[in-house]
Target: HTH cro/C1-type domain-containing protein
Amino acid sequence: MISYAAFWATLKESQESTYTLIKNHHISSSTLDKLRKNRPLNTTTINDLCRILNCRVQDVMEYIPSDNDQIL
Model:
């Protein structure tokens, strides 16, 4: 499972907010909803978030091993 808990911690430490991500950086509210719910995002979005927040990928997301998300 991919967790975006690191994103929320990184966002809190930055000078950005969900408001500025939407209004200034054109990140959609549906993307923020996906981040809240740990839903899949594409790598372009991850790249954009890293650029905006000036951070590394691991500051946005983390892989947590889970048997529940295995595709059979």
Remarks:
- The chain has four helices and two strands.
- Strands lie at 2-3, 62-63.
- The longest strand covers residues 2-3.
- The mean pLDDT is 95.
